[in-house]
Amino acid sequence: MTPTITAFATSPDRGAGLSRDMRVRWAFEEVGQNYDVRLVSFKQMKEPSHLALQPFGQIPTYEDGDLVLFETGSIILHIAEKHPGLLPDDANARARAISWMFAAIGTVEPPILELQTARFAEGQESWTEQRMPLVKDRIRVRLGELARRLGDSEWLDGAFSAADIMMVHVLLRVKPSGLLDEFANISAYTARAQARPAYQRAFDAQLAVANAAGQQAG
Ligand code: GTB
Q: Is the CB of 57 under 6 A from ligand 1?
């Protein structure tokens, strides 16, 4: 059976690949699994039929037969467990890769999301200008820690894995701010990942949705 995921009918990033369905598309492409996409509007995302799949009214979701999943971390872990290629066979290496998946969404992503909130939700507040440097510095701290651990390594822990999908996609969200450019090895790491054919196929697929909707990449 071909799994189905949901994605924005009109993504706020207009096909820049930053929406979270991109991670799932990328994982499917890495393991060579076909998938269907059901596009949903913002209105549909908050309706009961979608809330039954995703209690917070968000995308993406994953459906495969009787199984419904939400949260990109769990969806990608499921794909990686179901197909060879995205998690190491060695039990300890596998556990470490899963730790990195949690680190991406639990430790690195939160300060990055804070920057989005500061910009887009609170951008008009009088205190935003004062707060912004603090928000950016918190991201710098995390990026510095990650850069130190990454060093000259190609990927986070040995071979490319689901952990790199999660981490790179989290990092790409902060790229437009210029903060990644301060860390040469992290910039090289994300560029390496973006050069993977599977990333490119996933990117093109989500861009095609934006183009069909008449959106222009922002
Ligand atoms: N923790 C969940 C997961 O990982 O699956 C988070 C899911 C999530 O936040 N989904 C977003 C959503 O549905 C879409 S990706 N939001 C609607 C809502 O909460 O009502 C978020 C996103 C939007 C825009 C950009 N962008 O423009 O750069 C990037 C990411």
A: yes
pTM for the structure as a whole: 0.96
Per-residue model confidence as pLDDT tens digits over 55-80: 999 999 999 999 999 999 999 999 99
Place of tokens 């651990």: 149
What is the whole-number distance in angstroms between the Cα of residue 14 and the centre of ligand 1? 13
26 and 98 share one domain: no
Question: Which structural domain range is residue 175 located in?
Answer: 91-196
Tell me what the pLDDT averaged over the chain comes to.
96
Whose Cα sits closest to atom 9 in ligand 1?
58
Would you state the structure tokens that stand for residue 119, as one six-digit string? Answer: 């910009």
**CATH number of the domain that 45 lies in?**
3.40.30.10
For residue 167, give the CATH number of its domain.
1.20.1050.10
- Number of separate domains in the chain: 2
Number of helices (H), then strands (E), in the chain: 10, 4
What is the whole-number distance in angstroms between the Cα of residue 20 and the centre of ligand 1? 6
> Is residue 77 domain-shared with residue 120, that is, in the same domain?
no
User: Which candidate, 103, 102, 82, 100, places its Cα nearest to that of 30?
Assistant: 82
